[in-house]
Amino acid sequence: MAYELITIPCLSDNYAYLLRCGTTGEVAVIDVPEAGPILAALESRGWTPTQVWLTHHHYDHVDGLPDLLTAYPAQVVGAQADAHRLPPLDLAVAEGDTVTLGNLTAEVIDVSGHTIGHIAFHVPAAKCAFTADSLMALGCGRLFEGTPAQMWDSMQKMLKWPDDTTICSGHEYTASNAKFALTVDPGNAALISRASEITAARAKGEPTVPSQLSTERATNPFLRPADPGIRATLGMPTASDADVFAEIRKRKDNF
Ligand code: ZN
Ligand code: FE
Description:
Layout: E1 3-10, E2 14-21, E3 27-30, H1 35-45, E4 49-53, H2 59-62, H3 65-71, E5 75-79, E6 91-93, E7 98-101, E8 104-110, E9 119-123, E10 128-132, E11 135-136, E12 139-140, H4 148-159, E13 166-169, H5 174-184, H6 189-203, E14 211-212, H7 213-219, H8 228-234, H9 241-253
Parallel strand pairs: 3-4, 4-5, 5-6, 10-13
Antiparallel strand pairs: 1-2, 2-3, 7-8, 8-9, 9-10, 11-12, 13-14
The chain binds zinc ion (ZN) and fe (iii) ion.
Fe (iii) ion binds next to helix 2.
């Protein structure tokens, strides 16, 4: 399946994305932190977006929408559960729904935790998923509204995706996430080498997002509460995965 995926840095540390069906040329914009860089990315390619997919209502994911819609009157897709505080939606979706972009199909899943009603879009044919502030590179979003158990439930849904899924998350937080990850998983060789790659990439001003799910599985502590090394570090050898996840999240909040 032909497709193109473009990452667009926005604001100080946000990312927006463009996904284009290579067969029909239809384009979706995923999250709109600000319009300027997104309009520039569209114009330089001569692309006209027909859809905007919103992951959650926070300003740093929606504030550029009015200016984008002035330039391109696209269909706005977002969560039914978040509709009361999202910009006006043309299509309100919930877990289990699909969104069609040309020959590509996105599966909507509820990944509540950071906010209630945060959704992710998984596009199997393009081997990518838009996770914003749920699953992030070496991290997960802060729990502003949901419980740790809810976020762990969301993480488990994302763990079901194939290893070669490109995780398109919402922020360049990876360097600080790596520093924290090393405190709970200090013996993880894959994490140690990823952390040095991240340091090198950031020193050159290169993005560390998106990332591969296989890499997250091996190194992201928020996907690894069952890991014996992490459990030994936390002194929680027999706790439930949900409780270990909650402890990791609590430590990150206080890091
Ligand atoms: Zn957010
Ligand atoms: Fe955000």
